[in-house]
Amino acid sequence: DAGLVMELEDAFWKRNHIDSARIAVTATGLPSAEGVWEVAATAHGLEVRGRQFQKTGLEVNMFERDGDARLEIMRRPGEEYHAAGAFVVDSLSGSIDLDAFNIQVDEEEWILVRPAHVEWDRSTLSAESIEVARLGGDPMSLLAEGKVSREGGSDFRLGVSGLRIEKMLHLAQLEELDAAGQVDLDLSVRGSMESPRIDGVFRVDRPQFGSMELTRADGDVTYRARELRFDLDGLAGEREALRATGTLPVDLALVKSDERMVDSPMRIEVVADSLDAAIALSYLGTLEGVVGTVSGGVSIGGVPSAPAPEGRVTLSDGGWSIEAIGVRHSEVNGTITLQEDRTANIALSAEGNGRSDVTGTILLEPFSDPDLNLQFDFDRFLAVSRADVEGLVSGGFNLTGKYSRPLAEGELTVDEGTIFVDELQRAADIVDLSDPFLFETGLAVDTTTLISQPLFAGLRNPFFDNLRVDVDLSVPRNSWLRSIDSDVEMSGDLLVRYDRRAGDFVLIGELEAVRGSHRVLGRTFELDGGSVLFLGRPGLNPDLNIEASSRIRRQNEPPLNVNALVEGTLVQPAVTLSTGEMGIAEEDLVSYLVFGQPSGANSQVGEIGRRGVVSSAVQGTVTFVGGVLTNQFGSAVFGDFLDYFSVQQSGGQSFGREYFAQTQVEVGKYVGDDLFTVVVLRPTDNSAQNQNAVAGVRVEWALTDDYNVEGFLEDRFLRSGSLSLGSTAGLIENDRIWGVIFFREWGYGQKRNSTEQN
Question: Domain limits at 679?
Answer without folding.
Answer: 656-758
